[in-house]
Amino acid sequence: MRYKVVIVVVLVGFFISCGMFSPKTNFDLNPKEFKETIASVDKIQILDVRTPKECAKGVIKSAIEIDWYDASFDQQLSKLNKEIPVVVYCASGGRSANALKRLRNNGFKSVYNLAGGYNAWASAEQ
């Protein structure tokens, strides 16, 4: 019986440390919310983490382009202001979700992801 209690305590500790019992927070914005956020915030950093080839197909106005695959990605991120909100996007949302985590882990206070990425943005704009 004592071992069962120890196992339960260890598992609960593990789940808490992994964030499984923490409140779920969603940092994703759909294209409409993304557009409203850009328009309503005085100072904002729009971060495009797609490759240069992808960016050549179109970008969101005023976006800062930092290729997720570039070896200097973290160094380039360090040039952004941690106090100014960041909205990040890629082609479909995967890389930008990872970039969001990296930004938040590096002390950025307010970071949001464009759900569905530039593809969703371009479809919504048509």
Molecular structure report:
The chain has 126 residues and is an alpha/beta fold. The protein has a single domain (24-125), classed as 3-Layer(aba) Sandwich (Oxidized Rhodanese, domain 1), CATH 3.40.250. 44% of the residues lie in helices and 13% in strands. The protein has helices at 2-17, 31-40, 52-55, 73-77, 94-105, 117-125; strands at 28-29, 45-48, 63-65, 86-89, 111-114. Strands 1-5-4-2-3 form a five-stranded parallel β-sheet. Helix 3 (52-55) links the parallel strand 2 (45-48) and strand 3. The protein is globular and about 35 Å long. The protein starts with a helix and ends with a helix.
CATH first level: which class?
A: Alpha Beta
Catalogue the unreliable spans: 4-25
How many extended strands? 5
Remind me, CATH topology?
Oxidized Rhodanese, domain 1
Number of helices: 6
Average predicted confidence as pLDDT: 84
Q: What's the CATH H-level superfamily name? A: Rhodanese-like domain
Helix and strand composition category: alpha/beta
Relative strand content: 5-15%
How many strands, what sense, and barrel or not for the largest sheet? 5 strands, parallel
Q: Over all CA atoms, what is the radius of gyration? A: 18 Å
In which order are the strands of the major sheet placed?
Answer: 1-5-4-2-3
- H/E element sequence: HEHEHEHEHEH
Specify the helix fraction band: 40-55%
Question: Per CATH, which architecture?
Answer: 3-Layer(aba) Sandwich
Report the principal-axis shape: globular
- Can you tell me the number of structural domains? 1
